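User: quick one - fold this with calcium ion bound?
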Amino acid sequence: MKKIILFADTGIDDAIALIYALKNPEIDLIGVVSGYGNINREKTYRNVEYLLELAGRTDIPVIAGATRPLSGEEPVFFPEIHGIEGLGPIDPPIPEERYQNRTNFSKLFGLIKDNPNDLIIVNVGRCTSLAIAHYLSPEVMENVKETYLMGGAFLEPGNASEVAEANFFGDPIAADFICQHAVNLTIVPLNVTRDALLTPREVDLIDSRSDSPLEELIKPILDFYYEVYQQLEPGIPGAPLHDLAALMAALDISGLYSYSKREVRVEHEGNLTYGESIADFRARSSDCYGPNCTRIALGINQNVFVTNVFEILTN
Ligand code: BDR
Ligand code: CA
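Assistant: Sure. Structure tokens for the protein plus calcium ion:
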């Protein structure tokens, strides 16, 4: 069983990753760090509380993460992609007091200290909260066993700009810091998660097997997300589940991914290249092995992906 802390900006694909984590018997979800990103921190926090409540798992701590990038600039949110509240058509009925009484970072450090070298961090939003955790307490963060990021785009276009993926674009200073300092780092980039698709037919099949309030949320939010993607990328056969794809990398599912190891940097000074992820994939370069080497997913097996997602979400 893998002990996982999810850093998320919940968000539709974050929500599907969270639902999957709650339903997968191989995952022991020991906390969620909820920061700004797709929407503001208050909304992401309420969304996580809502999903945990529907799952009957309010024992899992939700820790309030960052509210803006390390540059200090105002964050840009994406209600047109994730809905006004971040869950498509859903407005989670979570009272405001819950956010007022939110849990802070000391809880995160306590969870890591209680599980030395046994904890995996999966970051599927901006890297700000994770970078702050490393800045605040590098000695505690050394106890993290592995880190996974959904972010970046290698050798293909971005989504937030021509060259940059949204999580890295949203805070490239934090993303660059994590690429240089997180131990045992794996990145599952946009050029791979773009292929982590669920078609409307597959979503309908999952829905036909839903028998809990948590599972019944899957179809309305993914239908919303699919419609959005039809506008963004007309003809795309399904909705890309970026964050779920990154979470699944932590599970060693046989045949799901192929990888390469490279040093990764994230541009945070250039105007035209702001947020671009850079690794050396020239023909003459090969896998590296130093402490700054990051495992980068190169491709996903769609059959393995869909089969596993179906199995977990309908069990
Ligand atoms: C990433 O950006 C966010 O919009 C999604 O939740 C995902 O984490 C995809 O680029
Ligand atoms: Ca996300």
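One thing worth noting: The longest strand covers residues 27-34.
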